[in-house]
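FAQ: What does the model actually see?

It sees only this:
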Amino acid sequence: VTADVTDVAGNPATDNDPITLDNTVPTIDITTPIEGDNIVNAAEDGDVTISGTTTAIEDGQVVTVTFDDGVNPPVTTTATVSGNAWTATDADISGLNDGTITVTADVTDVAGNPATDNDPITLDNTVPTIDITTPIESDNIVNAAEDGDVTISGTTTDVEDGQVVTVTFDDGVNPPVTTTATVTGNAWTATDADISGLDNGTITVTADVTDVAGNPATDNDPITLDNTVPTIDITTPIEGDNIVNAAEDGDVTISGTTTDVEDGQVVTVTFDDGINPPVTTTATVTGNAWTAIDANIAGLNNGTITVTADVMDVAGNPATDNDPITLDNTVPTIDITTPIEGDNIVNAAEDGDVTISGTTTDVEDGQVVTVTFDDGVNPPVTTTATVTGNAWTATDADISGLNNGTITVTADVSDVAGNPATDNDPITLDNTAPTIDITTPIEFDNIVSATEDNDVTISGTTTAIEDGQVVTVTFDDGVNPPVTTIATVTGNAWTATDADISGLNNGTITVTADVTDVAGNPATDNDPITLDNTVPTIDITTPIEGDNIVNA
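And it is asked to produce this:
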């Protein structure tokens, strides 16, 4: 640049200096995306890095970077150009409002030619949240029925639709199990997680998600995995023989054991005949044992009853066992056939071998009838019989050692189910031997003459013979048919009259008196008499005194 001038006199003056002409327009560009996605999250907002390039900018020129939300004072940082590149670091924009942030980069070359560039970014430093909805699987316990398909649900805040939730199940030993879910309306559900391969015990469930800006959220909750299958067993035989009878059907007791079932868990016992509504009772497990009482199954049908015991452990793993029992609450009957020994009286001839017969209903063949004879004083006498076709006969009962009088005869039997039946009847034992005596002499001299032979009278006495019993008196010559007459006992005395023995042979006649007491005990007595009914003759020799004349 030259400057020339002359004064009035014409004296010239000159000067020159060099200058540089630089009218090339420089440029500046912000490298995008900023922070990898043009979104600044809470983890980035305290140290934002902006990089870029320039053209026609000399090394050492300062780039000014401004972050402006349009509301708060802009945040400014600087960078130095080197080789037409620059990087501004440590920009803390956490104080700006979330939303669109205008990032402006300004620089001038040495000549003062300016260059500028701006780009919008999004500031999102609102921390999202995620929550796992509990209890998981309704009780925070996953059992064997659930462990192959665990469902986890939850909610989020400030997480955009479509973001992926990662759910991890970790037992601390085995490789974690992972499943995913997609956020919709700040809700999510992860299904089909198979955690059956993890160890039983505490499982940490972690749900992780990030919003679009990359802000993370996490939540974790412990659950219990218990997929050990418990067992339950019913102790048999139930009621001692797996048969419930009428005496038991109102209060059936069922016991059993368990494995892997916690104390306090409830066992449900069901009795089902397949027709009527099942009967249910419960028991509580203590020390892996249980007893259910007071089950009233009287209303079920006779026959096979299925007994089922169900229990679950705390995790909900079920266990079941069932056993058949027989319900037989039909009451059998037994009847003693009377009269016993023909008249309900046992005498001395019968008391060593008494026979008792009877019938039953609903008693199976082979069941044993017990027959007892009891006088109320001495030890009872017992005999037995076996039921065949609902009939029975007990023989050879020796009751001779019991006291005379009323004897109670009791017949007891039970069916196979144990239902009892009983019957009793009184009999009379009379094994006291009575006596009878013929009063002698008969006809005053034990001789029956022709004037007596058609109306012989026999008298006598008895002991232990009841009034009204009949004495049979027999006259026997050993040749002709005996002659019989009767008498009635009154006050242990008797008299038989009008015996016509005139047709018997003269000579010794055996007179026998027979009687039985009411029980049938016999008494007899006999005595010999002489029958002499031959009419004698007498003749007077005449003449008397020579001439049939008696003089002075």
